[in-house]
Specification:
Length: 308
Amino acid sequence: MTGGAGGTNRAAIVLAGGDGTRLRDLTCRIAGRYVPKQFCPLLGRSTLLEQTLERVSLAVAPEHTWTVVNCRHECFYAPLLRHLSRSRLVEQPDNRGTAVAILYALLRMAQIAPQAAVALFPSDHFFDDDAGFMRHVEHAFEAVEQRPEQTVLLGIEPDHPEPGYGWIERGSPLSGHQREIFRVRRFWEKPPTQIAAELMARGCLWNSFVMVGRLSTLLSLIIVAQPELYAAFRPIRAELGKRREQACVRALYTRLASHDFSAQILARHPANLAVLPVHGVAWSDLGEPQRVMETLLQIGVQPRWASA
């Protein structure tokens, strides 16, 4: 498998399996019924998932992109992903958190591209400059090619002390890189406003949850932090890509608790994590209705539903 600049092995995982319950009222207003936000045209005519896939395609070819969804949402994603190869569609029987979604996708990808460098993308974010942001993702791929043991997170330079985001405290610079990349000292998850202001003053960054790492390195992070979770998938690995996969996965998911990748994987072992500051790109995770309205104001869009 080849993809991305330089003909190197690059792939992407787009996470689209969340329920988006905090925006339920807003998506009902827009669509006339509940629609998970990633399948809703919040910021224009296309859905957030479609915008994400288009953005990702600037650095990773669509045929090298895996999309993780929730089978309960099939009526929403089936029309949007009708051209996607079934081998690149990771259908979860239920939402069990980001760590489970990422692990399942990585194991599926490992059958086809075990040597890939993988970029992870949420499907419900906004960037005011897609090309500018994806240039930073390209730099993260380059950094991982130089230092395969590192996982590089994309940290957004904050413009206000937002208490609703996760923050990354950077440590010393990593040597041997032309661009500034720093070790991760620690994570701060949704700190109070006063603490967020202190973090901003110290040069900390918003955690975009976009990251790049070797497939084997990302799996190793899960093995070290959550060995029981990794072991739970072992009995079904021989069925991945085969006829019995969905039945085996459904049975497995009934026994799985929810696991958060940020809190239960990354924050527990930041030793081999690095952060690349993203300059000159505005970002929002669109996790609250207020952020959606602020983003619409920022981009100068007033859809019909917003004025109704």
